[in-house]
């Protein structure tokens, strides 16, 4: 398998699939393509018909959309249990993963994933606060209903956690206050060995994407 990803400092969609595969111990070759470069589109097109990352290449199978990749991995490796085993939990996990995939645009636009930015708050619009309230409500519900078996949303790690991991980084990076349950979940994501490997690699990168630097033209780095 080949997993085509973008910059680790910025590419939240790449993180989702990479984290799921790393946490499930699924072997893959990483192909990192630097985003926002003159040759970026052409290089991605060698692998992906959508022209975007992430893209998974498994022999003659190409999957080019994050949630579709996660579903493919769950089917391809059922023993990895990338969705919760219990039907009701699995249904909720898929629902909140889909909500993440299509929603929370205000938060995503105002607070891009940027792992090397120092922890620093910014004035938040009501739309951003509304997104945070909805996300943390989902987290609390998942944890209270199905989280007894471990520290993740549904106890053990699942695709739902992969989908929300970049949100956990945003909440920390931009010092957005959350409830106690959600704060603990943010810490759970940051404590993952696989996430730390991704973050450490991202902090070593030097490529800049102006649109993902909230303080542009100032670039703040830890």
What does this structure look like?
With 222 residues, the chain is α+β, with helices and mostly antiparallel strands. It is 50% helix and 7% strand. It has a four-stranded mixed sheet with strand order 2-1-3-4. Strand 1, helix 1 (12-23) and strand 2 form a beta-alpha-beta unit. Helix 1 runs parallel beside helix 3 (66-76) and helix 4 (87-102) packs across helix 7. The chain is globular, with a radius of gyration of 17 Å.
Concise summary:
The chain is of the alpha+beta class and 222 residues long. 50% of the residues lie in helices and 7% in strands. Strand 1, helix 1 (12-23) and strand 2 (29-32) form a beta-alpha-beta unit.
Helices, strands, pairings?
Blueprint: E1 2-5, H1 12-23, E2 29-32, H2 40-45, E3 55-58, E4 61-63, H3 66-76, H4 87-102, H5 105-110, H6 126-146, H7 159-173, H8 180-191, H9 193-204
Parallel strand pairs: 1-2
Antiparallel strand pairs: 1-3, 3-4
Cα separation of the termini: 34 Å
Order of helices and strands: EHEHEEHHHHHHH
Structural class: alpha+beta
Main sheet: strands, sense, barrel: 4 strands, mixed
Strand content: 5-15%
Number of helices: 9
**What characteristic shape results from the CA principal axes?**
globular
Strand order of the largest sheet: 2-1-3-4
Radius of gyration, rounded? 17 Å
Percent helix: 40-55%
Instruction: Show unreliable segments.
Output: none
Q: Could you give the count of β-strands?
A: 4
Overall pLDDT score: 97
């Amino acid at each position: 398998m080949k997993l085509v990803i973008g910059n680790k400092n910025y590419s939240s969609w790449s993180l989702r699939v990479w984290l799921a595969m790393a946490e499930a111990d699924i072997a893959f070759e990483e192909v990192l393509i630097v985003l926002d470069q003159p040759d970026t589109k052409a290089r991605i097109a060698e692998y992906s018909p959508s022209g975007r990352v992430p893209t998974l290449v498994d022999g003659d199978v190409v999957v080019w959309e994050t949630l579709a990749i996660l579903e493919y991995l769950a089917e391809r490796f059922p023993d990895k249990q990338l969705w919760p085993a219990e039907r009701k939990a699995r249904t909720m996990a898929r629902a909140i993963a889909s909500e993440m995939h299509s929603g929370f645009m205000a938060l995503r636009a105002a607070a891009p994933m940027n792992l090397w930015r120092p922890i620093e708050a910014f004035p938040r619009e009501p739309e951003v606060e509304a997104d945070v309230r909805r996300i943390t409500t989902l987290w609390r519900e998942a944890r209270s209903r199905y989280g007894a078996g471990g520290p993740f949303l549904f106890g053990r790690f699942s695709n739902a956690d992969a989908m929300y991991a970049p949100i956990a980084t945003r909440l920390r990076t931009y010092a957005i206050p959350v409830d106690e349950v959600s704060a603990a979940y943010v810490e759970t994501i940051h404590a993952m060995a696989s996430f730390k490997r991704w973050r450490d690699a991202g902090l070593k990168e030097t490529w800049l994407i102006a649109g993902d630097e909230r303080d542009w033209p100032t670039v703040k780095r830890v």
